[in-house]
Fold this sequence. Notes:
Shape: elongated
Distance between the termini: 19 Å
Strand content: under 5%
Number of strands: 0
Amino acid sequence: MVEFGEQLRRAREAKGMTQQSLAEQLYVTRQSVSRWECGDRYPDLITTTKIAQILEVSLDDLLSGKEMEKVVERNPVIENKIANNIMTALYAVTLLALTLPFIDAILTQSITPDSFKGNIPALIATVLKIIIFTYGLINAIKGSLSPKRMGTVIGAFFLSNCIANSNALVVLFSQITLSKIQPGDLLKIIGFSAFALLPGICGAIAAFFFFIKNKKQMIWPVLIMAVSCIGILFSAFGKFSILIRYSEEYSLIHTLGLILSIAVFALIIFQTVTLMRKRKNAGK
Length: 284
């Protein structure tokens, strides 16, 4: 079977075009066309359609079904420039919101060993989120958030939420061990563990199988979207009491945090739906 790069070269030469002249009509560099023909990279589906129109060949002549799938798996999930810019901005704002408290604590010298007591899971979760959103931001700027890389970001984000929620679980354990164990304590621990940890674990597993392993079963994207919706509800209910109890300034901070949290989960749903559609189109 002749691969895309060779088919592209043959169609271009049959049309009497150079790599440079084709690149000019596509508004890309000659090096991009060269990489396509060498098989190092694939153009996105919109560009591939334009190539077929310029060279007056059918899309099927350029890409086989398997190669259409390769295009989807190698290219960024979000190829629309406006959507990618919004995603990049959201990653940047989230990263800023996560790092500013650390910067403020360092500048005010308010970090002490005692400040970490009882907050180690939350601290680990925050550090993990800073790492994954930095990774996501760099790849979003470079336009290289392929399904595997995006799955890494989403899966790690869900796991970081598990770690953060485990902080409340640690508090519950300490309360039980410091008092007499009641008959319903075990049931309380199991129920609270499932409530706090299960959504994030399920989301991380689903992100691994759907984004990274490219599993076709519908359960994985549905599970990702369900966990994201649960995350939105948890964020809303978790902030509600804070918004009505505390000062206006304090409430404003948490309101912005709530909006940002909802935006991140909404982005995950959008990324999942986008990849579902691209894989479906490639499989036709």
